[in-house]
Every structure is written in structure tokens, then in C-alpha cells.
Amino acid sequence: MEHRALGRSGLFISEIIYGNWLTHGEGVERDTAAACVQAALDAGVTTFDTADVYAQGAAEEVLGQALKGVRRESLEIATKVCLPTGPGRNDRGLSRKHVIESCHSSLRRLGTDYVDLYQAHRFDDETPLAETLIAFDDLVRAGKVLYLGVSEWRAGQIAEALRLAGDLGLRSRIVANQPQYNMLWRVIEPEVVPLSEREGIGQIVFQPLAQGVLTGKYLPGEPAPAGSRADAGGRAPQFISRVLGDTLLRRVQELRPIAADAGLTMAQLAVAWTLNRPGVSAAIIGATRPEQVRDNAGASGVTLDAETLKRIDDVLGDLVDRDPAKTGKMMDVRPEWRASRS
To answer: Active site residue: 54, 118, 181, 218, which one?
Structure first.
């Protein structure tokens, strides 16, 4: 497993990050979740990503239990705050109240005294940005958070946060951005990536497999494979159905010979593609089985040559979305991506 610096910070993270959205606490039994975490550790993964809102806190609890007994200094644990975690009006957003309370709750569920990376899960238009940045800075000064990041923020929002942190004389600054990014969804490339590279912010990207579609296991005109996320319980099928259109699935199958020529599985090709993009520090993978973790981890250290990258672009062509105005939106805005069947 290769490690990379997170942006221009001094923190090194594993190229492959294990994440537990839609799995721990809702779509995967605890024993299986623990086995997946162990598979990640065995593969050399040291960085783990979660959020307070995942399964309403259960995902943090499951991850904390699975990592119990592992030397804390050998791990980089990341979590997030902003999305609703309860019925109260203050159980959401980036107010000082919610940020501080949510951090304390996350630390308790994870069973740790600090998190390595604390991320604003979304931008909060209802809270003064200065209030949020000061609350984050206070957590850093208290030793409960080591580094700060954001997720799915637009370039202008990130730029304003950096400017304001400087004006306020804060000790901490944003070093990470967690966007949705893969071969098909490249909306961060025109604006977010250039800004981040100038400012030393590393991208830790989620959905490198586009909800599993880029693994090639979903075939046009056929039902979802038994045991896949699209065939599972919980919320996973509603997200995956947005990218199961036959037009898209046929094009994905054309990537098979490219993966074969590179000596990679389809999943490894997709993950390696993100790791070969400018500004990317790591790719977050999710899994419902340990073998998926081992397969995805095989993308670490893989270099894709220019010809391979061009072949991928030639295959996907007009299906690729690079519209920066869609930053922060789910991958459901292209009609040709959507499933026409129920």
C-alpha cells in the first residue's frame, strides 16, 4: 500500500481509504463489517473515513469497534459533520453548537480521543462561515481534531473559507476536500482542482467506482446480480438505480479490454484512474465483502500510461460530465445514465 501526503500538509494517508457509507450499521452485518475492516488493515490501509450521519451514528460505532486494539498512532481516522443527525433544529448544519456537540459524539462512538481529519460534510448557507471556522479551529487547539477538510464544497466556497481563515488569524486551515469523482463524474476538474492545487488542498475522492457501476458487474438489459448493492436492502438501491441506464452500462462494458490489457480488474482500473489524476491524494472505497477490499486495494501504486487514459476517454466520450455547476450534486442528472427499468 502506497501512502501520499494530504495536499501540502505533513499528514500521510493511505492511497486507498476504507469508507463505510451505506454499509456499516445498515447494509452489512457487524461480523462482515469487521472482516472488511480487517481485510483493509491486512492490505496496508491505514486511513478510515466515516461520518456522524452514516446510519445515524451506527457506522462510527461499528468502525470504532472494528478498530479496537489497533495501535491508534498507526491509523488516520476521518469523520464529518453537517447533515441531520436528529430531529432537533440544531441537530444539523455547521453552527458552533452542532459542530462541537457532534465532534464529542463522534469521538465517543469511535472510541478515540481525537480524529485525524474532521470535515464539513456540506456547506451551510444558514451559519456564518466565520462561526464555523472558529469552532473548527477551537477543536484543533483543544487537540480533538488534527486536520480540517470539507466535502462537496464549490470552489468559491473553499476560496472564501481560506480567505476568511487568514483574516481571522486562525491556526488551522483546510487541507482536504472530499468530492464525488470518477471516470464519469469529473465536475471538480474545471474549478475545484485548480484552486485546490494552488492552495495545497488534497482531494480524497469518494465513489471512484460510481456506485459499483464501473466494476462492470451490472449488465445492460439484465437484472442486478444477486448479492450486489443494487439487489440489497437499505438505501443503496435507490442511489445505484440512478446510474444503471443501459446506454451507460453498454459503454462501461467497452472498458473491459482496456482493463485486461493493463492487467487489472475493472474495479482496479477505475480506482487507479482516480489515483492517476492531478491533485488526488487518495480514493475512498466501500465494501460489502472482504474480497472486494482486497481487489480494490490492488489499485494502489498502479500507473496508467497516456495511451490507457486516452482509450478510457475515447470509450466514455460524451457520457462524461464536467459541468462545475453540478459540484455537490449526486450522479443522477444525466438522463442516459438512469435506469429505464424498475
So the answer is: 54
